Prior knowledge:
alpha/beta, 16 helices, 2 domains, six-stranded parallel sheet, binds uridine-5'-diphosphate-xylopyranose, Rossmann fold, 14% strand
Amino acid sequence: MKLSVIGTGYVGLVSGVCLAHLGHEVQCVDIDAAKVDRINGGECPIHEDGLPELMNGVLGTRFSATTDLGEAVQNSEMTLIAVGTPFGEERIDLGQIESAARAIGEQLATKDSYHVVAVKSTVVPGTTETVVLPILEEASGKKAGADFGVGMNPEFLREGVAVPDFLNPDRIVVGGIDERTVDVMSQLYSIFTETDVVRTTPSTAEMIKYTANSLLATLISFSNEIGNLSAAVGVDVTEVMEGVHLDHRFSPILEDGTRVRPSSLTYLEAGCGFGGSCFPKDVMALEAHARAAGVPAPILAGALEINALQPGLFVAPVIDALEPGASVTVLGAAFKPNTDDVRESPTLRIVPALVDAGFKVTLHDPIALDNARSELAQHMNADDLEYQADLDASLKSAAAIVVVTSWDAYRTLPDMVANMQPQPLVADGRRMFEPGKFARYVGVGRPLAKS
Ligand code: UDX
């Protein structure tokens, strides 16, 4: 299929490159000319495992980037909208979606053949049919359903493993205003013959995406609440969740009696809070949407509230244990390992809290320090701490070590700390370590050591 993708951000670029890899002819469009040049020069503008290789495999044959939206739409049968949908002051900001829809609509005005426009960005339920569709009709002077199709096709990609997630989907959701639209959207994924395809309406597709992310985020916040409670009653949340996880609804028992056991307790791992570009923004948008619709949504509000509290609750024992002026090393700025993305990372709350408490803070991350410095500038004077890319050097003379991101490089921390004098307090925000590995240890969801 001939496809145009509007937006070369994380979603647009991963989708465009993967769809070209699967055999489609793809043109990605961006208003940022420098970014378009980088892509066409073979340089991948985002950090995502496997993406540069895949991109260079199709560049110049089935894949290219352009700033010319008109040409890309005219030369394709289908357009995916993959622009940003940030959370504004009080609700999701649809500005980029609206201007993309207008520009596409202006092209449809002079296009003779049937075209499908599908929203890939995460948008609140109703957006495709009540915002995008009317703009397309108005700008094109044509009728949706008769002259063009309109649909919604959410992505379910985790950062860091977005390429394998795209190429091995667990489900495909295609929502369209009519059968014809859904048929065209399904063709895009026809190579996945074994994958479940949900054929539905645009609003249902939008709601599936929000519900999926809100459920995962709520499970994390629930686990964090139970973790805090477990610590307070003197038990370890890991054991609690392992017991809970053996419920056959989480770990199904197959007919031959064996159990399906995911390697980790998926989204039931207590920690120092969730971050990233999806969970916080999506739960906020859905909660705001519920409020605007007059529908009570205390669970969504609660998931956000716990997530806002969790970083502070996690570092409180460190702040209590040390004298002001002490050196504290924070390990990890990325919101999870294997990415340089620091958006909404718990580190952005933990570092300012430690600096405010009067500590000398050193921040380490293998790849995300530059991003951390610019994000921290929105929360505090970003130069009030030291940024250290060398792990050994970052630990020097630390009175406390606060582990926020579960990078593999931190797994040898017990050895690195073993000879430090005096022994630092290790605060483990991801329960990476056995408590007995350190002389002084506090871990999220773990009982405080008896002294
Ligand atoms: C998520 C969804 O997984 C994906 O399907 C969706 O399309 C986009 O949002 P992503 O934001 O890349 O993907 O990250 P994910 O790996 O799901 O982790 C999100 C956050 O939750 C991280 O900060 C992680 O540390 C935290 N987390 C995850 C927990 O604290 N506990 C858990 O049990 C799982």
